[in-house]
Design brief:
The chain has about 675 residues and is of the alpha/beta class. It has 26 helices and 20 strands. Helix content is about 45%, strand content about 20%.
């Protein structure tokens, strides 16, 4: 079968989906069934359970492959069991009994929590990280330890084809609550050994208690890290197994952490050992897709090829789910066979073609120890304002900016230091542009109180974690995106010259954030032009409205949606999207992405331009990467071709950022 670095992308579908930013996968039927379960908990009237079961019987074949519906239906059927004997029969297996008892505890407190937040009967505040993490755990727990998982996954057939035999040593990486871990424990027997490897402390707690309670002697629970699987370097295993993890490893890990993580897998394997990856496949035919994240087989295999893993076997018992078996091997030299007209892309390294920061990992994730030290120096400079303190902070940032954080907030922090050292005339010059005057006023009030609190929260410098900013992500984006020093890293002025916004044009800044480009476009189009600023974040849009009203700008704010830019038809000379397409590609489910891009397409005039600015997923050797999310431009070009857009030009002013110009095909 061999290894390959070639990837095919012959449809409009994204090759990897990492999880929605929305709730479009919540259908009226699913919400109705969940409401019936909650009504049962409130009333103890079993007619609501019967209604829920009937709803799931109808919904499962049509809309929720691999989702929680089969698990919730199983719970309903157990609660409807006509006798204690039937209930005992359903709970005969230890794993199922443990799963159910966990959800049942304290009057089904955990299950109620999951349903209430999952289906938005209650909302989680943006700053409630603890509840966000508990919900993520509960979703994984319900999905992956589901007693009816066999029905949709065909688990036993997958295991049969993988030929797990007695006496093997297996590392189950990202094992969750142990669905495969304990199946493997039975299969390898007393002479084998299973390492259940997991990073989530809630899963780890559940696993350790289960192993102890059931006296399982051939399973050892291991805590992993982002940069490694966590087992002792002296331990060698026959099989490294990983289920529903590699889509995250591919798209959401940093390059450094992913490399270290995969190398730790390689180091743990015996010379003839096997890496087995089970994940969800891209389904582009009429078949029901998997309900959540996925990664196309050839995208995953192309990356592992560069890490020295040769694909030797494919197991696919459903269209939605696969198992790939790899052995360690030396890779051969690769010829670039990229041909976007034929939908072919060659991966030229082990870097991912898409990188995407998960929302619940941010915003405290992603800074280095150097960044934390520099933040401490800036905090001191803001407090005592001495030239020495300011110079120490600037020196720290000048050292780390070229090495690690292109495009992040570090150059903005240098701007604050420069302002502190400047005299009155220089300060007036620095804030002569109203955009930067507003920026300073936002952070400098009450002796820079907001900026100080931000530094304490983001970089974990405060002694009391309870003072963490509730709108930390919003402030973080504002600092980075409206940064007065942005031109230093982005070459913004050269970009704007290239984009060539002219007086009288009608422009849309789609996903405008706090209005950095919106403001500049409004200045360029003049009184005869119009700039539509679209944003789903109403707080960011309200700031844009403030700029518009205060400076009498030709800006029309628009509250958009993930599936609709909310722009008028056939009106725009240019539609601009900066640092946004990667999210459209990797985070929106297909129906949402289809509707969004169609809304952009119909808003353009004939001959109008769609301008995409985004970040390279991989920069040339020796250049630091952009600090955040990004996407290989070939994926953008290939996908938009299928949506009826033709690439007419492209430009690059820095290694980390590119501009693509498209016209719609009429």
């Amino acid at each position: 079968m061999g290894g390959s670095a070639t990837i095919t992308c012959k449809t409009k579908h994204s090759l990897v989906h990492i999880g929605s930013l929305d709730s479009f996968d919540l259908t009226p039927g699913g919400i109705g069934a969940a409401k019936n379960i909650m009504l049962y908990f409130e009333t103890q009237d079993k007619k609501y359970l019967e209604k829920a079961v009937k709803a799931y019987d109808k919904l499962i074949p049509t809309e929720n492959f691999g989702g929680e519906y089969t698990a919730l239906r199983w719970v309903c059927r157990l609660l409807l069991a006509p006798s204690k004997d039937i209930e005992d029969e359903l709970l005969e297996a230890d794993e199922i009994k443990s799963w159910y008892r966990y959800l049942q505890a304290n009057g089904f407190e955990k299950l109620k929590t999951y349903i209430q937040y999952k289906y938005h009967f209650k909302e989680i505040s943006a700053g409630d990280i603890k509840t966000h993490r508990e919900l993520r755990f509960l979703e994984d727990f319900i999905l992956f330890s589901n007693p009816h998982r066999e029905q949709w996954e065909k688990t036993s057939e997958i295991l049969r084809k993988l030929r797990i035999v007695g006496g093997l040593t297996i590392a189950d990486v990202g094992c969750g609550s142990g669905y495969f871990t304990f199946k493997f424990a039975d299969m390898v027997g007393p002479h084998g050994k299973i390492y259940g490897i997991e990073i989530n402390p809630l899963h780890l707690d559940y696993l350790n208690k289960y192993v102890e309670k059931n006296s399982i002697h051939n399973v050892e629970i291991v805590k992993s890290n982002l940069d490694g699987i966590g087992i002792d370097p002296s331990v060698k295993v026959d099989v490294v197994f990983s289920c529903s993890l590699f889509h995250v490893l591919y798209a959401a890990f940093t390059e450094q952490d992913r490399r270290a993580f995969i190398e730790s897998i390689e180091n743990a394997l015996l010379p003839n050992g096997a890496l087995i990856v089970v994940d969800n496949d891209l389904v582009s035919s009429g078949d029901l897709p998997y309900h959540g994240p996925y990664i196309a087989k050839d995208l995953l295999a192309s990356q592992l090829y560069y890490y020295g893993f040769k694909l030797i076997k494919k197991v696919q018992v459903t269209k939605q789910r696969y198992a790939l078996v790899f052995k360690k091997s030396e890779r051969k030299k690769v010829t670039d066979e990229t041909n976007l007209n034929k939908g072919v892309i060659t991966a030229l390294s082990g870097a991912s073609l898409v990188k995407f920061a998960l929302a619940d990992a941010a915003p405290t994730a992603g800074y280095s120890e150097g960044g934390k030290r520099a933040a401490g120096l800036l905090l001191k400079a803001l407090e005592d304002k001495t030239a020495k303190s300011i110079d120490l902070a600037v020196s720290a940032y000048e050292k780390i900016i070229p090495a690690e954080r292109i495009g992040d907030e570090y150059t903005a922090f240098v701007w604050f230091c420069e302002y502190l050292k400047a005299d009155g005339a220089a300060r007036r010059e620095m804030t002569s542009d109203p955009l930067y005057k507003e920026y300073l006023d936002y952070f400098a009030g009450d002796d820079f109180a907001l900026l100080k609190q931000y530094l304490q929260s983001k970089y974990e410098l405060a002694a009391d974690d309870g003072e963490r900013l509730k709108n930390l992500m919003q402030v973080s984006e504002y600092i980075a995106f409206n940064n007065p020093n942005r031109d230093r890293w982005e070459k913004t002025n050269q970009m704007l010259d290239y984009i060539d916004i002219r007086p009288g044009e009608t422009i849309a800044d789609v996903g405008c954030g706090s209005g950095y480009f919106t403001y500049k476009f409004a200045k360029s189009t003049g009184e005869s032009g119009k700039v539509y600023a679209t944003e789903i974040n109403k707080e960011a849009l309200s700031y844009v409205e403030t700029l518009r009203d205060r400076y009498k700008l030709n800006i029309i704010p628009v509250v958009s949606a993930l599936n609709d830019a909310k722009l008028p038809f056939d009106k725009f000379d240019k539609i601009f999207m900066c640092s946004m397409y990667h999210a459209v590609y990797v985070a929106s489910i297909e129906a949402v992405k289809d509707a969004f891009i169609e809304s952009v397409k119909r808003a353009l005039k004939d001959g109008g331009k769609l301008i995409i600015v985004d970040n390279e997923a991989e920069t040339p050797r020796g250049e630091p990467d952009y600090y955040g999310s990004g996407i290989d431009r070939r994926l953008v070009i290939s996908q938009l071709k299928h949506y009826g857009f033709r690439l007419t030009d492209e430009k690059q002013f820095i290694p980390q950022r590119y501009i693509l110009v498209f016209q719609k095909v009429v």
